[in-house]
């Protein structure tokens, strides 16, 4: 496989890999971090001439192990009590997609892996077993238990409130969004730290105040976007809507601060898959 073909296949699989990583980690943003680590590891393995017989399975195995590494660092693995009355039938795809990332996080790791790979991404039991490094029997059992657990969780009352964000973080992000809406990019540039980092997820990374000037120039020239203050998974965010399509954001932007300066901007323009089933809410600017 040529380098160009290798990178093309990585790009094509990126949304599917993110769906897996986001549900495994319980966060669309953490899922993107795990996805990027996965791609770095894949490129490194290629440079070392790793033998790959099943490209997609190999890539999902790396994503699986990288997700587990993050989960173990967080020491979060909540087990859901289950009955022994297993249900073998899959949940309807629409119901699976609607399940929140945090609900998936309540399943034990192997159950979560099995349900995501089989019912969300369409892998076979044998493929699940290969990716999760277990026997097909164990994968099938985990799938049955995971499906049962999700049905039980779906019947339970849910608290859909997002975590409260600190008032200082709310005010800073609201001001950032207000300046974007007014097109006052000079004011935003004045808030940038000298070593500010910009990531256009799935496209490029820049560092330095002078380096990222074109980012604001291009937004100043674009007229199809509408900006709103909100939250994604409880994090202050700028929600970006296409003009005339205000029901759901097209993507979102996160901003990190160091004291009163902007230290990092993470823009998901080129990674719209990150909003798939993510918890988001529009908030008032005031």
Note the main attributes of this structure.
286 residues; alpha+beta; Butyryl-CoA Dehydrogenase, subunit A, domain 3; Nuclear Transport Factor 2, Chain: A; 2 domains; 11 helices; 7 strands; globular
Q: What would you say this structure looks like, in words?
A:
The chain is of the alpha+beta class. The protein contains eleven helices and seven strands. It has helices at 3-25, 28-47, 55-74, 93-98, 101-105, 109-120, 125-132, 136-155, 167-182, 185-190, 213-221, and strands spanning 192-200, 204-207, 225-232, 235-242, 251-258, 261-267, 280-282. The protein has a seven-stranded mixed β-sheet with strand order 2-1-6-5-4-3-7. A hairpin with a 2-residue loop joins strand 5 and strand 6.
Secondary-structure arrangement, i.e. CATH architecture of the largest domain: Up-down Bundle
Strand order of the largest sheet: 2-1-6-5-4-3-7
| Percent helix range | 40-55%
Distance between the termini: 54 Å
Element string (H = helix, E = strand)? HHHHHHHHHHEEHEEEEE
Please give the radius of gyration in angstroms: 21 Å
Q: Write down the CATH class of the largest domain.
A: Mainly Alpha
Strand element count: 7
- The geometry reads as globular
Name of the CATH superfamily of the largest domain: PhyR, sigma-like (SL) domain
- Taken as a percent bin, the fraction of beta residues is 15-25%
How many strands, what sense, and barrel or not for the largest sheet?
7 strands, mixed
**Separate helix tally:** 11
């Amino acid at each position: 496989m040529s380098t160009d073909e290798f990178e093309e296949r990585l790009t094509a699989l990126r949304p599917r890999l993110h769906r897996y990583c986001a549900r495994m980690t319980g966060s669309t943003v953490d899922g993107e971090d795990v996805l990027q680590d996965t791609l770095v590891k894949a490129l490194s393995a290629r440079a070392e001439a790793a033998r790959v017989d099943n490209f997609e399975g190999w890539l999902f195995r790396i994503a699986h192990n990288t997700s587990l590494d993050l989960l173990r660092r967080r020491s979060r693995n909540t087990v859901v009590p289950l009955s022994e009355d297993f249900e073998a039938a899959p949940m309807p795809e629409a119901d699976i997609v609607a399940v929140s990332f945090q609900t998936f996080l309540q399943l034990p790791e192997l159950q979560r892996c099995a349900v995501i790979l089989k019912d969300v991404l369409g892998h076979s039991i044998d493929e699940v077993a290969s990716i999760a490094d277990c026997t097909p029997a164990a994968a099938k059992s985990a799938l049955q238990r995971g499906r049962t657990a999700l049905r039980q969780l779906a019947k339970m009352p849910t608290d859909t409130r997002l975590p409260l964000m600190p008032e200082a973080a709310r005010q800073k992000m609201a001001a950032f969004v207000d300046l974007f809406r007014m097109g006052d990019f000079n004011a935003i540039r004045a808030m940038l730290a000298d070593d500010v980092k910009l990531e256009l997820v799935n496209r490029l990374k820049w560092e330095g105040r002078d380096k990222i000037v074109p980012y604001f120039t291009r937004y100043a020239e674009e007229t199809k976007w509408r900006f709103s203050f909100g939250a994604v998974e409880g994090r202050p965010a700028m929600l970006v809507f296409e003009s005339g399509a205000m029901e759901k954001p097209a993507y979102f932007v996160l901003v990190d601060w160091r004291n009163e300066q902007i230290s990092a901007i993470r823009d998901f323009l080129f990674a719209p898959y990150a909003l798939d089933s993510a918890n988001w809410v529009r908030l008032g600017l005031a």
